[in-house]
Amino acid sequence: MNYLIVTTDPVSAEQEALEYAKSYNPSDVFWVKKNADKKEITVDVINEMINQFNLAAVSDKKLFIVFQAELMNTSAQNKLLKTIEEANDNTTVMFICQNLDRILPTVRSRCIIKYHHTKENKTLQQLAQANPDTPAIQQAAHQFFTATTIDVAMSCLPVLSKPENLTLALDALNKELATAEFSADKKFAIYQALAKISRNIAANCNSTNTFDLLLLARF
Fold first, then answer.
1. CA within 20 to 30 Å of 48's CA: 9, 28, 32, 155, which one?
2. Where are the domains positioned within the chain?
3. Considering only CA atoms, which of 142, 180, 181, 146 is closest in space to residue 160?
């Protein structure tokens, strides 16, 4: 059985996968990740996975967990198709990803898609603890929605649009917007702008210019 787990909290998802893996013989659990010196999960990693697929289980079942599955490049995903399609009932493949759009339709169609939710986002907590800009991000997000002039709002953007701050900035902006006293139409327009920024981040596009749309929606 193949599962595609879509999460906004990969730290929690990984911890839960580790806990689930305890129900298997450790020799039958295989962790699939990108190599440390690569930005993608490449075909050579998938070839190793397929080799393990073809070996008999030590116990009666096998588990493959692919972390950051959206990092599989196109060749790697295509390489997997036949293997996951022909997997027997005693083999489970669990793909964990944040961006479903980067998973090929041919892979998605061979998986049961599940959405992973957590009450407390441990990934964001870790990012916040590690980022010295966290207090400034929270202050800028609040000021952006309480600013009475566009100049004041623009002064918030340098800290919010820094590439290393974008994930925390989007979270802070969404939380501030939830309690902001705007009309329904204005809130909707701002949410749309934030969603576009989020999509650009997921697609590894330049998100800085998208903040212009956020300014336009705000004012």
1. 9
2. 2-116, 131-218
3. 142
Residues 147-184: tens digit of each pLDDT:
999 999 999 999 998 888 888 888 899 888 888 888 88
| Exposed e or buried b per residue across 175-204, where buried means at least 16 C-beta atoms within 10 angstroms of its C-beta | ebbeebeeeeeeeebbeebbebbbebbeee
Output the CA torsion sign for 80, 86, 91, 94: positive
Ramachandran angles phi, psi of 32, nearest 5° = -110, 115
Rounded CA separation 104/92 (Å): 19
Q: What is the edge-to-edge ordering of all strands in the sheet holding 91-97?
A: 29-32, 62-66, 91-97, 2-7, 112-116
Q: 47 or 122: which carries more pLDDT confidence?
A: 47
The C-alpha atoms of residue 75 and residue 54 are separated, in whole angstroms, by 20
Q: Tokens representing 197?
A: 């920024």
Domain 2-116: CATH architecture, name and number where available = 3-Layer(aba) Sandwich (3.40)
Residues forming a β-bridge with 29: 63
Provide the residue count of the chain: 219
Average pLDDT in the chain: 88
Flag whether the pTM goes above 0.90: no
